[in-house]
Design brief:
By secondary structure, this protein is mainly beta. It contains 3 helices and 15 strands. It has one domain.
Length: 256
Amino acid sequence: MGAMCTAIVSVDPASPVPVLLVGVRDEFLDRAWEPPGHHWPEYPRLLGGRDRRAGGTWLAVDPGARRAATVLNGRGPLAPEGRRRSRGDLSLRVAANGDPGDLDLPAYDPFFLLGVQPDGARMWSWDGAEHTERDLGPGLHIVVNNGLNGEGHREGVVEDAFMHARLAHLRPLLAAAPRPEPRPGGDARDWAPWLAELEGGGLDRTDQRTLLPLHEFEPGRVWGTTSISLVGLAPDLVRYDFSARPGDPSAWTTIL
């Protein structure tokens, strides 16, 4: 099983909170990281969790600019070992500047990169050969490691079967629920319409459909969801809630 992170974006220009971003990070549990903070002197405004191995982040928030970004692993040929750059700097670039700028794309392994601000959302993709950029219009968008709404699905591939099951289960539930409206001074309970599903929906963590997978590939080598980030953006609001114990309703921390 490879990476199977999930990002959920909801864009509703008529809402008091026009853009919502949910970032679900899946990783080997023994990979060290630090909780959200101001970890990057070169980006002093940014908040996010820090990967201690590579130094970057999977999700970054710039409170002053009302902007956030998250990155997911893509699929395709990997960058040459001696040239490879961490994808963890991509979220920092977009959160700080609004776009990734000029990238040495062949130095990066494939990725999906999402940037959100109150007026909308944008996705950049790199598959090792082709770079694409597109706006995500109004509506609910779910990005997994085979693309936006699973558009790169491959039949007969185990990882894709998991992603397809997750999307087929989660999308109708979130679409049918009232859209959350995080408020100033609130906490994760503001996400109540979606919170049950974001905390696992009562599914076993080995279930193909779960948003919060957990699998032991060998004794002591466990892979699964390590954190969840919830971000709400409006012209006068940034809300950022975080959990380092996915599935535990008591574990939510309000960062902003």
